[in-house]
Amino acid sequence: MLMYALIGLCLILLGIVGLQFTYLFYVDRMYKQRRAYLHDLERRLAELKARLAKAEARLAETDEILGFERDETWAEVIEER
Predict the structure, then answer these.
(1) DSSP string computed for 9-60
(2) What per-residue confidence (pLDDT) applies to 55?
(3) CA-CA distance, 16 to 2, in Å (whole number)?
(4) Is residue 68 classed exposed, middle or buried when 0-12, 13-18 and 19+ CB atoms within 10 A define those classes?
(5) FRET pair for 69, CA 20 to 30 Å: which of 17, 36, 45, 59?
(6) pTM of this prediction?
């Protein structure tokens, strides 16, 4: 009778180990997906920074062509209101 109890206990422990391995593989897969997502976000951030720098350069060039500074223009707009 003790032998059946020990076999049952071994099977229960084997099931618990199987669940732990399944969870370990799940966590590892989620970690890899999040790392890939973070990499994509960093790449997108770099692209947006480049676009922002280009837009600021174009804005500065436009301001230079028009011959006025932004701060002075906003001060005039505020004074008018």
Answers:
(1) HHHHHHHHHHHHHHHHHHHHHHHHHHHHHHHHHHHHHHHHHHHHHHHHHHHH
(2) 95
(3) 21
(4) exposed
(5) 45
(6) 0.60
